[in-house]
C-alpha cells in the first residue's frame, strides 16, 4: 500500500520563503530600480519572518526559512546600496 504524505504548511512556507528570496535577490541584481528592489526585498523579509514563526518547530523547515531570509536581506541590501552608490 502506498500512503499519501501531505505536505505540511511549514514546508510549503519554507519553499515559498526561498522562492521569494531568490526572486527578490535576482531582481535586485538585474534591475537598476533601487526602490523596487528595496520594496520587494522588504516584502520578502516580512514573508520570511512569518515563515520562521510558522516553521520554528522543525529544523529542516526552519533552515529553508532562514535561507529565504538571508536572500531577502541580500536583496534589500543591494537595493539600499544602489540607492546611495548609483
Automatic annotation (TrEMBL):
Q: Where are the transmembrane segments?
A: 12-30, 36-55, 62-84
Print the keywords alphabetically. Answer: Membrane, Transmembrane, Transmembrane helix
| Protein name per Swiss-Prot or TrEMBL | Uncharacterized protein
Q: Which organism is it from?
A: Chitinophaga niabensis
Amino acid at each position: 500500500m502506498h500512503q499519501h504524505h501531505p505536505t505540511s504548511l511549514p514546508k510549503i512556507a519554507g519553499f515559498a520563503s526561498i522562492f521569494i528570496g531568490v526572486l527578490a535577490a535576482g531582481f535586485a541584481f538585474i534591475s537598476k530600480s533601487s526602490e523596487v528592489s528595496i520594496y520587494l526585498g522588504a516584502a520578502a523579509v516580512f514573508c520570511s519572518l512569518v515563515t520562521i514563526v510558522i516553521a520554528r518547530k522543525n529544523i529542516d523547515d526552519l533552515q529553508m526559512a532562514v535561507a529565504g531570509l538571508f536572500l531577502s536581506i541580500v536583496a534589500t541590501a543591494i537595493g539600499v546600496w544602489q540607492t546611495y552608490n548609483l
